[in-house]
Predict the 3D structure of the following.
Amino acid sequence: MNKNLLSFAILALAVVILVVNIWKPGSTESEKNTTAPAGESVETTEDIPGAKLSSLREGAEAPDFELNTLDGETIKLSELRGKKVILNFWATWCPPCKAEMPHMQNFYEENKDNGVEIIAVNLTNMDKGADEVQKFVGEYGLTFPIPLDEEGVVGTTYQAFTIPTSYILDENGVITKKIVGPMDEKMMKELTGVK
Amino acid sequence: MNYITFGRFTLPADLLAAFAAIFIGALIYRAREKKSIDDWFWNSFFIYIAIYKLSYAVFNFKMFLDTPLSLLYFNGGTAGQILAFLGIAIYLYWLSRAKGSTITPEEYIPAYFIFFLLYWTGLFAFSQDFLAAAIQAVLMIGFILFYLKNIKLTMEYAILFLMLEALILSLFSDLLAVENLLIFALGVYLIIFQRLNKEEIQH
């Protein structure tokens, strides 16, 4: 190719790239809206076509459940409306779950007053018993609620086959993201949009 | 980040795309040169992984001591990536400046393009953005044909390919994401390095 033609192509491309990127702030702003306060995101939830058709898609309402926690309390998912929720599924024998626990604990300590809740459902029916779970929780110093899925119903509903699996729910209990695999603190911050 | 699940295994998509790119890239090199690619290609890759992973241990030292296995799953984040790219830049500089080295910076740039064009194609495909993957694949195949036909990769062509890639990322991904900027910085660095090296030889 002619050198002048090449230089011209490079220049033209540079202009196009510049234009495309200047245009972009509009689209990133609309992304930010999903992390806006509850009042605004009600509309965006309803705007997603077919949002409530399938129960486990991003953009669909998270199936409700009620479980007893390790501390003997009862927790109901729908009672957490108004807060963002990281809904995590784990077991004591799962290495990547172990890896992400300290990150979750740190994130929880920093953000529990910022409207983000962590619910770490233990797949008790696949685990080594509540004593082992208690020991694990003590060892890692976990302070967020640990519901025990003793029947295995909730884990199955949420398709937590490969663990850890986590769902990020917005203030309306709508799934905004499903993550298979461990998350570190930085990822949790990005996913929940906390500063 | 995207994760790909095979049965009970879960792998991060970027790692998978990078591994695919390094092996396919080496094969493409072999197709043209009829010999295996030099060690620096593999070394750069491992330098990147080593710094990126180990920086997690440095930045999260307490957590790393508590759960050393977490190194398998996490990495040094943005700071780790910056260090890893710096590591590659320093390594490649040192390598071609070392006494008696037969490696010239001219070899770096085609390998750079082949690797990253494959990497981005894989990344788009794994995140199931098939339109982006297809367009990325066109650019990748374009470059590979260019490479296999032995057309001289002048500075102008290198910049042209970088610009085309920048356009694709602007449209389908985020050009200004730290990882993308770092990859471009490495590309620009290699182009300048090659240029300076050539001038030195001519003088």
The mean pLDDT of chain B is 87. Helices of chain B lie at 13-33, 39-59, 61-66, 77-97, 108-126, 130-148, 155-172, 178-202. The interface with chain A takes residues 1, 3, 5, 8-10, 12, 63, 66-67, 69-70, 72-74, 77, 156-157, 159-160, 163-164, 166-167, 170-171, 175-176 of chain B (CB under 8 Å). Residues 168 and 176 of chain B are 12 Å apart (CA to CA).
